[in-house]
Amino acid sequence: xxxxxxxxxxxxxxxxxxxxxxxxxxxxxxxxxxxxxxxxxxxxxxxxxxxxxxxxxxxxxxxxxxxxxxxxxxxxxxxxxxxxxxxxxxxxxxxxxxxxxxxxxxxxxxxxxxxxxxxxxxxxxxxxxxxxxxxxxxxxxxxxxxxxxxxxxxxxxxxxxxxxxxxxxxxxxxxxxxxxxxxxxxxxxxxxxxxxxxxxxxxxxxxxxxxxxxxxxxxxxxxxxxxxxxxxxxxxxxxxxxxxxxxxxxxxxxxxxxxxxxxxxxxxxxxxxxxxxxxxxxxxxxxxxxxxxxxxxxxxxxxxxxxxxxxxxxxxxxxxxxxxxxxxxxxxxxxxxxxxxxxxxxxxxxxxxxxxxxxxxxxxxxxxxxxxxxxxxxxxxxxxxxxxxxxxxxxxxxxxxxxxxxxxxxxxxxxxxxxxxxxxxxxxxxxxxxxxxxxxxxxxxxxxxxxxxxxxxxxxxxxxxxxxxxxxxxxxxxxxxxxxxxxxxxxxxxxxxxxxxxxxxxxxxxxxxxxxxxxxxxxxxxxxxxxxxxxxxxxxxxxxxxxxxxxxxxxxxxxxxxxxxxxxxxxxxxxxxxxxxxxxxxxxxxxxxxxxxxxxxxxxxxxxxxxxxxxxxxxxxxxxxxxxxxxxxxxxxxxxxxxxxxxxxxxxxxxxxxxxxxxxxxxxxxxxxxxxxxxxxxxxxxxxxxxxxxxx
Length: 696
Hints:
The chain is an alpha+beta fold and 696 residues long. The protein folds into three domains: 2-82 and 425-690, 3-Layer(aba) Sandwich (Rossmann fold); 88-334, Prolyl oligopeptidase, N-terminal domain (Methylamine Dehydrogenase, Chain H, 7 Propeller), CATH 2.130.10.120; 335-422. The chain is 19% helix and 34% strand. Strand 6 (112-117) and strand 7 (124-127) form a beta hairpin. Helix 3 crosses helix 11 (673-690) and helix 6 crosses helix 7. The two termini are 12 Å apart. Pfam families: Peptidase_S9 (PF00326), Peptidase_S9_N (PF02897).
């Protein structure tokens, strides 16, 4: 009890004396369809100004001053570091004589890329990104081998930015060639013969981290040449807010062009192909609608294509190239198809049943051969390979099942453990259960609840409720070692599968889009009410958390139900719903959100935009906003303006801290291991301190 009182004295007393930096207000008004909207912190959108830099410094001084007074913060970091410190591997992938995989020894800032001849030979280092920058924030984000494995494109990101630079490695010497390709974004490296396709933007005017990105171009880079000599393959300057990306088929016979028009609110894509040796793409699906098309692989006389056209749960069709006809290969099922791919002369199709993975194997005529038996109800991914492969790898995981790599033999249809994680804790000490709770309109929403076995469910447990709910993104079961110390403190972790995701196909997605976005917020609020009603926790012990679109979620429900939560963590959130499309690739989100340029959609966005709905004098939960200076996906101005408005309207009357934590040399996610652990330690410390708890 004494320790609890000491912790309260060290945090709550300090909260009441918090003095937030005074953020200058300016006269700036935007007009939307006759409505005038004040934007007094508009100046914070300039990420390069001295004034913004000074504001960031002053906010961080307050935030880290507060966090550093929490007496058990160091203990939390030590516990997280210990839990995270075990070897972590990716599943191997085969190219030529070599198997390639990533490994992190435990606490390395970046995972190291290895290769080995056969599965039993000694591995050799291909590339160690930890040696590329002093602070370990340069990441290897693309590694694409040529068909014969002689060369590889290595794509690097610096400081967490989405911008990438491509270099080419000679796989015989493991040395970089002089080739260098800059300003790559929303791209892969698709090999064909002596070079590769990639997508890039013209060099931005103004801030590289905030300027709007337009005119996405596809180039072909030939090995041994300069970027200025790259051949322009495709562009569409008349439609500057389209994405153009290219992949190639395994045999490199076809280049496949994907064209999307999300800036105009269209959720699907067009699909074009170009045969090797030819100079023009021909359409498979020319018109861009809300239907998506993805080429699985080329087979005799045509292509296998995954699509949701007239199939909300998706299906696979066969497109005959000569006659341009379609026929069903895999019909739509009651469960949504999450992905399909080929390997070893088979097609592997992954479905989601109540947010858990089911994998089925088909021959290339579409006949079902077998289901891949998984260890339990969790998530499985992988199954990639080439036509001649005799086996594939996949990784299986769940909330209480650390990622484990399995080898699946195609001929025997059997899975065997290839590599188990060497964790220092016992996964069996924890349990996960799935519940279905009613939302405001009666829709049943699934959620996973994880805690340590034997925990007393008396309504007094510190609980984190996590959600996303958007962009057709599913939140399947996943393992996090940094969650274990929290569970050991009597914590409960809840992941709600809100509408807007892909958990139940396109219809589920559509129920959380545009004019129906409020459903997502209602789902999240209902989850909190369910947890309190069922005695998992109470309002005084409930924290909410979400990042990016999930940061928007947290900001919106804080405004709508500030009484329901004790602590809130809106991370890298889209907080200004009226101006999001004016930065970098924010226009890409119009397909999910709508746009303030549209009169009807403006009304919807303005009604829930976190920045524009903060209530003066309201008692908000203890809030720690997190963002980073190199986030060029959701620019930090969203969080800057939101924090300034929250402090101005509620700071004086709130007994809870309203802080913003701004990381440096990091992006939309932590740019290295150390930063990730530091951020998580601060989150747990802030949460426990404001709940009157001590980390033991």
